Amino acid sequence: MSENSRLAEPHVMHTYGRVNIALERGQGVRVWDTQGREYLDALSGIAVNTLGHNHPKLVPALREQIGKIIHSSNYYFVPGQEALASRLVALSGLTNVFFCNSGLEANEAALKLARKLGNERGYKHPKIVVCEHAFHGRSLATLSATGNPKIHAGFLPLVEGFIRVPFNDFEGLKRAVENEPEVTAVFFEVIQGEGGIHPARIEYLQQVRALCDARDWLMMLDEVQCGMGRTGKWFAHQWTGIKPDVMALAKGLASGIPIGAVVAGPKAANLFQPGNHGTTFGGNPLAMRAGIETLRIIEEDGLLANAERVGAHLQQRILATIGKLPGFVQLRGQGLMLGIELDRPCGALIQQAADAGLLISVTADRVIRLLPALIFTQADADELVERLLPVVREFLEQSHD
Ligand SMILES: *Cc1c(COP(=O)(O)O)cnc(C)c1O
User: Which residues carry this modification: N6-(pyridoxal phosphate)lysine (predicted)?
Assistant: First the structure.
């Protein structure tokens, strides 16, 4: 795939191994490429296009906003920031929001909050606990927090101050911090996305919450991929009854307009003072409008319940079909964030599925990842399985461990 991109785009840096497709337009959960071929979109730009493509309520609102003002500056009040922040606060039960432009930026802000707390406490080497197989982004700090040696490679030395522990292992976490007096935060994904769709156990989240309370640490959750309704609740941690102190959001928050947000509760909301953090583009009127409209449409159209219902149906269809194939290992995830683990590396499936008119991704080498838009219907789910099943069957027949 990378040879392809080298030939097709000689002036673009070679950072992606691309699938040999260029998408030109979309409608709902369908997209069309520059050759006019149609695809069922089960990836939504990696959990970004929450409302699918060309949504009839979103697009007119964005058109109107572009005609008014796209960008002003954080020199001035941006009314959309307070409007979107108050919605996120109401939905999360937290108190204050900082807006930025991407997932890594939201995570970077979270990491800075934890550092700031450590500095305020007079710690010489404040530490943040992070998890193996985590993915938090590609900046120096967020790649250092990421638990994947492939993402570290070439960028050593890592930013210091992270303690890496196994995911979903509370005893392991406790052991790792036994002789660490300067911990300020624990930071992890509620469902590891890039790591292969691994949900945190409810009990683990509750135990970490209790430990953070007992030790006065920040509990910081990366909900960049699993948040914004994907699991059937606004935020994935809301299945557990706990509340974090800090939550990072991005991907699905504004249906494709770049955005990030770090949402904080009382323990973290006042750590940043004027001059401590900022961004030029973050929180601009267009992104705020896209976020406000996305939340409104999710609510008006009952898309949380839809994600839960269609997700359950999709899980059941997958188990009844792909789940019966030799080579199937496990189906994981919740709502419309699903991973189908196979017993062998299956990156080739991305192109093969595309050739069969279906957009998916493969992560952690062996996991087919499905992240359809929250408007996905049961009929779309049935079609997804109809298209995916023969592709996976043929792949398993023709490849070997
Ligand atoms: C995608 C992702 C990020 C990084 O987001 P960018 O917008 O690509 O910087 C961080 N954390 C998680 C869990 C993600 O899925």
Answer: 251
Residues whose CB is less than 8 angstroms from the CB of residue 259 and which lie 6 or more positions away in sequence, other chains included: 99, 100, 101, 102, 250, 253, 287, 290, 291
Query: Quick one: tokens of 202?
Result: 């409810």
Mutate to test the pocket of ligand 1, among 192, 223, 225 (most ligand atoms within 8 A of CB): 225
Annotated binding-site ranges for pyridoxal 5'-phosphate? 135, 222-225, 280
What are the CA-CA distances from residue 172 to residues 42, 130, 213 (Å)?
A: 36, 12, 18
267-326, pLDDT tens digit by residue?
Answer: 999 999 999 999 999 999 999 999 999 999 999 999 999 999 999 999 999 999 999 999
Residue 177's alpha-carbon distances to 75, 128, 136, 192, 222, in angstroms, are 42, 10, 21, 22, 21
Atom of ligand 1 nearest to the CA of 194: 15
**Domains along the chain?**
3-55+302-398 (3.90.1150.10), 69-300 (3.40.640.10)
C-alpha 224 – ligand 1 centre gap (Å): 6
The torsion angles phi and psi of 24, rounded to 5 degrees, stand at: -110, -35
Distance between Cα 258 and ligand 1 center (Å)? 12
The 3-state DSSP class for residue 184 equals strand
Polymer length in residues for the chain: 401
221 vs 247: CA distance, rounded Å: 5
Query: In this model, does residue 7 exceed pLDDT 80?
Result: no
Helices (H), ranges, 132-264: 140-145, 149-152, 170-177, 202-215
- Rounded Cα distance between 276 and 271, Å, is 9
Distance 106 CA to ligand 1 centre (A): 9
Q: Among all residues, which ones are annotated catalytic?
A: 135, 222, 251
Residues with CB under 6 A from ligand 1: 102-104, 107, 135-137, 189, 193-194, 222, 224-225, 250-251
